[in-house]
Amino acid sequence: MTYKKGYFIKLWAVRVILIALIALWMSTIFGFSAENGEQSQSLSDKITVQVVHILKSDYEDMNVKAKEEYFNTVSFIVRKTGHFGEYGILGVLISIFLLTFEKIRNKKRYIVILITTIIGMVYASSDEVHQNFVDGRSPKVMDVCIDTTGCFMGVVFVTIIWFLICRRKRKNVAG
Q1: Measured distance CA(9)–CA(22) in Å, rounded
Q2: DSSP string, 44-61
Q3: What is the pLDDT of residue 172?
Q4: pTM for this one?
């Protein structure tokens, strides 16, 4: 395959940018994990209040016990969705980075999925270990599973998009 002039410089620039974005995003995740239990809960509660009012217009009319149960349920979902989303973004970034390598790109798609998911799982595990040393926080295996699933879904999303782009290019070349 022949490459245009400047191709490799652009490719390396893209890789450097992606590495910077991955490092920045991992730092963001680390920063969230470094918040003590009270700070973390406060942020979740602010988001949960907004979600509760969007989902349940008659929330203020509920009795105190029902409000508390509903709020706690939504808060749990908000927190776990946050975990999933953080790692979904990480999965997207890592998989795009891996796809910049022709040797990886030309292999089976599952290689990108496997490598990205393993990196996500290792980082999620280290993130939970980190939380063990933060006041008011504790590591949870369930969070590692949710984080890993988020990373997996991020790479699957990128892989599907990549597959569709490649298929479209092949159709344009053939037709």
Answers
A1: 20
A2: HHHHHHHHHHHH-TTGGG
A3: 78
A4: 0.89
